[in-house]
Specification:
Length: 401
């Protein structure tokens, strides 16, 4: 076969194959069976990672007016942080009268015992001995007991005791004389007129006697009298004591100055008084630690606290807190503290939990300073200014009771 013929045959085959292929493809297109174009990012769906971020120029776009915007959410009202409710403590005046039933409950055995003994028909030696024992059991102390028995005996002999009422009147007068209503029981908590310095009250006592509680309760007494009070948590030994005091303060809107745990109590006391001066407070109440076992250690620490505070000016009150239920132990503590600091007043706590009301007299004698406040319960307003008459009436109970 000639070369020319060979080329013609190949060309013919190519043309036939080309026509066949065209015939196969063209009808398919015309029938519209071409697969739909793939969805386009930015047009058919939100572009994701790896997609083109923008829609191609020829893409059909949704006019802005047709775009559905999400409904705006109503703005939430700003939530005000809830301010802790500031309590309005009960005024202190007349509190002992309110608490008298509690006093009477704890002292009933003392009062009733004495009254029934004194009302006996025959007041013989044995009866007087029983009276003496009753008074000693109530922690009155030896010397005051002997004095009281002596006076009662004399008056019984001279005036005679004709009736239970007469016995009551006699006992009331003599107990009152022993408690001594003439003592000055005023708490010095007023701001100094000369220089505007706040009154400084230092609260001392052995741990667990109710010191921190007393500072908290006293703050409430003063707040009830519209005083501006500031607290100093100089009991840095026990962190919980500062927390406890801060809680008491917060409840009545009073600021507590505190220092680091285990820090220098004198420096906290100093800062508290300084803050009190700057804030023109009326009274600064300083809680102290009483953990010290030795007199020397106690003297060092309390002495330092007092000295450092006195860089600002003299301390106005040093209140010694004693737990009435500890009896003679309380007296020993009173003696030690009395030698270390000049105590100006006694706070006798937990009188609601003991029948030994005689401790009031004993401790006043021991220190030569008056009981100024008494604690008659764990409630925040269960601290009362000490009122000798209400106290003696509490011991004796109601006249008809
Ligand atoms: N029943 C009664 N309990 C009281 C009275 N005063 C204080 N207490 C309770 O005595 C306990 C001790 O009180 P605190 O104030 O913690 O004693 P504290 O002397 O400060 O002790 P420290 O903080 O460890 O120094 C608490 O449970 C008080 O509620 C009171 O008059 N009557």
């Amino acid at each position: 076969m000639a070369a020319v013929e060979y080329i013609v045959i190949v060309a013919a085959v190519v043309v036939v194959l080309g026509i066949a292929l065209a015939a196969f493809l063209v009808p398919r297109r015309r029938r519209g069976t071409v697969e739909a174009p793939p969805p386009r990012p930015g047009v058919d769906y939100q572009p994701g990672v790896g997609d083109d971020a923008t829609a191609p120029a020829e893409a059909q776009r949704t006019p802005i007016s047709d775009v559905q915007l999400p409904e705006p959410e109503a703005p939430e009202a700003p939530v005000e942080p809830e301010a802790p409710a500031i309590e309005r403590p009960e005024p202190a005046a007349g509190r002992l009268v309110r608490l008298r039933s509690r006093l009477a409950r704890s002292q009933t055995s003392l009062g009733k015992g004495l009254l029934s003994l004194l009302s006996r028909e025959r007041l013989d030696d044995e009866t007087w001995e029983e009276i003496e024992d009753t008074l000693l059991t109530a922690d009155l102390g030896v010397a005051p007991t002997q004095e009281l028995v002596e006076r009662l005996r004399t008056r019984a002999r001279v005036e005679g005791i004709q009736s239970p009422e007469a016995a009551r009147t006699l006992l009331r007068e003599e107990l009152l004389a022993l408690v001594d209503p003439s003592l000055d029981r005023m708490l010095r908590t007023d701001r100094h007129v000369e220089d505007g310095r706040p009154a400084v009250v230092l609260v001392v006592g052995v741990n667990g006697t109710g010191k921190t509680t007393t500072v908290g309760k006293l703050a409430r007494v003063l707040v009830a009298e519209d005083r501006d009070v500031l607290l100093g948590a100089a009991d840095t030994f026990r962190a919980a004591a500062a927390d406890q005091l801060t809680t008491w303060g917060d409840r009545v809107g009073v600021v507590t100055v505190r220092g680091p745990e285990g820090g220098d109590p004198a420096s906290v006391a100093f800062d508290a008084v300084k803050a009190g001066i700057e804030q023109e407070a009326d009274t600064v109440l300083v809680d102290t630690a009483g953990r010290l076992q030795t007199k020397v250690g106690l003297m060092d620490e309390l002495g330092k606290v007092k000295r450092v505070i006195e860089k600002h000016g003299p301390v106005d009150e040093v209140l010694l807190v004693l737990d009435a239920t500890t009896g003679q132990n309380g007296l020993v503590q009173a003696r030690v503290f009395g030698e270390v600091v000049d105590v100006t007043g006694i706070v006798l706590t937990k009188l609601d939990g003991t029948a030994k009301g005689g401790i009031v007299v004993a401790v006043q004698r021991e220190l030569g300073v008056p009981v100024k406040l008494v604690g008659l319960g764990e409630g925040p307003d269960d601290l009362a200014p000490f009122d000798p008459e209400a106290f003696v009436d509490g011991i004796l109970g109601d006249a008809d009771g």
